[in-house]
Protein backbone atom coordinates (compact mmCIF):
# COMPACT_ATOMS: atom_id res chain seq x y z
CA UNK A 1 0.00 0.00 0.00
CA UNK A 2 1.45 3.35 -0.99
CA UNK A 3 1.95 6.26 1.38
CA UNK A 4 -0.78 8.16 -0.49
CA UNK A 5 -3.29 5.33 0.01
CA UNK A 6 -2.43 5.14 3.70
CA UNK A 7 -2.90 8.91 4.02
CA UNK A 8 -6.31 8.72 2.29
CA UNK A 9 -7.41 5.94 4.70
CA UNK A 10 -6.29 7.99 7.71
CA UNK A 11 -8.21 11.04 6.47
CA UNK A 12 -11.35 8.92 5.88
CA UNK A 13 -11.10 7.51 9.40
CA UNK A 14 -10.81 10.97 10.96
CA UNK A 15 -13.72 12.28 8.87
CA UNK A 16 -15.93 9.41 10.06
CA UNK A 17 -14.82 9.94 13.67
CA UNK A 18 -15.68 13.65 13.39
CA UNK A 19 -19.11 12.83 11.91
CA UNK A 20 -19.87 10.32 14.68
CA UNK A 21 -18.89 12.86 17.33
CA UNK A 22 -21.06 15.50 15.64
CA UNK A 23 -24.13 13.21 15.77
CA UNK A 24 -23.58 12.49 19.47
CA UNK A 25 -22.99 16.16 20.29
CA UNK A 26 -25.99 17.31 18.24
CA UNK A 27 -28.26 14.77 19.92
CA UNK A 28 -27.10 15.84 23.38
CA UNK A 29 -27.60 19.54 22.66
CA UNK A 30 -31.11 18.91 21.29
CA UNK A 31 -31.99 16.63 24.21
CA UNK A 32 -30.96 19.22 26.78
CA UNK A 33 -32.90 21.93 24.96
CA UNK A 34 -35.99 19.70 24.81
CA UNK A 35 -35.75 19.14 28.57
CA UNK A 36 -35.33 22.87 29.29
CA UNK A 37 -38.34 23.65 27.07
CA UNK A 38 -40.44 21.06 28.91
CA UNK A 39 -40.90 18.91 25.80
CA UNK A 40 -39.53 15.80 27.56
CA UNK A 41 -39.69 14.84 31.24
CA UNK A 42 -36.09 13.53 31.52
CA UNK A 43 -32.66 14.54 30.27
CA UNK A 44 -31.39 12.17 27.59
CA UNK A 45 -27.68 11.75 26.94
CA UNK A 46 -26.16 9.87 24.00
CA UNK A 47 -22.78 8.18 23.91
CA UNK A 48 -20.94 5.50 21.96
CA UNK A 49 -20.91 1.97 23.36
CA UNK A 50 -19.43 -1.34 22.35
CA UNK A 51 -22.63 -2.44 20.60
CA UNK A 52 -24.07 -5.93 20.36
CA UNK A 53 -22.01 -8.45 18.40
CA UNK A 54 -25.01 -10.23 16.83
CA UNK A 55 -26.26 -6.95 15.30
CA UNK A 56 -23.13 -6.24 13.24
CA UNK A 57 -23.44 -5.34 9.56
CA UNK A 58 -21.03 -4.39 6.79
CA UNK A 59 -20.75 -0.77 8.03
CA UNK A 60 -20.32 -1.57 11.75
CA UNK A 61 -17.46 0.29 13.38
CA UNK A 62 -16.08 -2.33 15.72
CA UNK A 63 -12.89 -0.38 16.46
CA UNK A 64 -14.42 2.73 18.04
CA UNK A 65 -17.79 1.26 19.06
CA UNK A 66 -20.90 0.30 17.15
CA UNK A 67 -23.55 1.07 19.75
CA UNK A 68 -25.53 4.31 20.02
CA UNK A 69 -26.42 4.43 23.71
CA UNK A 70 -29.02 6.76 25.20
CA UNK A 71 -29.13 7.17 28.95
CA UNK A 72 -32.25 8.70 30.51
CA UNK A 73 -31.28 10.79 33.54
CA UNK A 74 -34.42 10.64 35.64
CA UNK A 75 -33.08 9.96 39.13
CA UNK A 76 -35.49 7.03 39.41
CA UNK A 77 -36.13 3.66 37.82
CA UNK A 78 -38.04 4.01 34.54
CA UNK A 79 -40.48 1.33 33.48
CA UNK A 80 -39.62 -0.86 30.53
CA UNK A 81 -42.52 0.76 28.66
CA UNK A 82 -40.93 4.21 29.11
CA UNK A 83 -37.56 2.92 27.92
CA UNK A 84 -39.17 1.29 24.88
CA UNK A 85 -41.01 4.54 24.09
CA UNK A 86 -37.71 6.45 24.00
CA UNK A 87 -36.26 3.86 21.62
CA UNK A 88 -39.34 3.92 19.39
CA UNK A 89 -39.10 7.70 19.00
CA UNK A 90 -35.53 7.36 17.74
CA UNK A 91 -36.35 4.42 15.48
CA UNK A 92 -39.30 6.29 13.94
CA UNK A 93 -36.85 8.88 12.56
CA UNK A 94 -35.77 7.08 9.38
CA UNK A 95 -33.21 9.72 8.46
CA UNK A 96 -31.52 9.44 11.86
CA UNK A 97 -31.47 5.64 11.69
CA UNK A 98 -29.91 5.74 8.20
CA UNK A 99 -27.31 8.25 9.38
CA UNK A 100 -26.44 6.09 12.38
CA UNK A 101 -26.00 2.98 10.19
CA UNK A 102 -23.82 4.81 7.65
CA UNK A 103 -21.66 6.12 10.50
CA UNK A 104 -20.98 2.59 11.72
CA UNK A 105 -23.61 2.12 14.41
CA UNK A 106 -25.51 -1.17 14.48
CA UNK A 107 -27.15 -1.13 17.92
CA UNK A 108 -29.49 1.33 19.63
CA UNK A 109 -29.38 0.99 23.42
CA UNK A 110 -31.63 2.84 25.85
CA UNK A 111 -31.00 2.70 29.60
CA UNK A 112 -31.90 4.77 32.63
CA UNK A 113 -29.47 6.05 35.24
CA UNK A 114 -31.07 4.07 38.09
CA UNK A 115 -31.63 0.34 38.12
CA UNK A 116 -30.70 -2.16 35.49
CA UNK A 117 -33.50 -1.92 32.92
CA UNK A 118 -32.47 -1.38 29.35
CA UNK A 119 -33.42 -2.29 25.82
CA UNK A 120 -31.55 -2.65 22.56
CA UNK A 121 -32.55 -2.75 18.92
CA UNK A 122 -30.78 -3.77 15.72
CA UNK A 123 -30.68 -0.57 13.68
CA UNK A 124 -30.49 -2.43 10.37
CA UNK A 125 -34.04 -3.73 10.97
CA UNK A 126 -35.39 -0.15 10.88
CA UNK A 127 -33.82 1.07 7.62
CA UNK A 128 -37.05 0.57 5.65
CA UNK A 129 -35.15 -0.19 2.45
CA UNK A 130 -37.44 -0.93 -0.46
CA UNK A 131 -40.65 -0.12 1.42
Q: For the report, how would you describe the main beta sheet?
A: 4 strands, mixed
Write down the overall mean pLDDT: 87
Query: Helical percent range?
Result: 40-55%
Helix-strand pattern: HEEHHEE
In total, the number of domains comes to 1
Flag low-confidence runs.
Answer: none
Strand percent estimate: 15-25%
Structural class: alpha+beta
Largest sheet, spatial ordering of strands: 1-2-3-4
List keywords for this structure.
131 residues; alpha+beta; elongated; 3 helices; 4 strands; 42% helix
Task: Put the structure in a nutshell.
This protein is α+β, with helices and mostly antiparallel strands and 131 residues long. The protein has helices at 3-36, 80-91, 94-102; strands at residues 43-49, 67-73, 107-112, 118-122. The chain is 42% helix and 19% strand.
Structure notes:
The chain is of the alpha+beta class and 131 residues long. The chain has one domain. It is 42% helix and 19% strand. It has 3 helices and 4 strands; from the N terminus they run αββααββ. The protein has a 4-stranded mixed sheet. Strand 3 (107-112) and strand 4 form a beta hairpin. The longest helix is centred in the first third of the chain and has 34 residues, at 3-36. The radius of gyration is 16 Å and the shape is elongated. The N and C termini lie far apart (41 Å).
Amino acid sequence: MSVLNIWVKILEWFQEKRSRTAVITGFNISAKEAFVNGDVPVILEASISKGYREYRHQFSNIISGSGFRIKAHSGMQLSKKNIVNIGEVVLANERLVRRLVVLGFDTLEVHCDVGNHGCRWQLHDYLMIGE
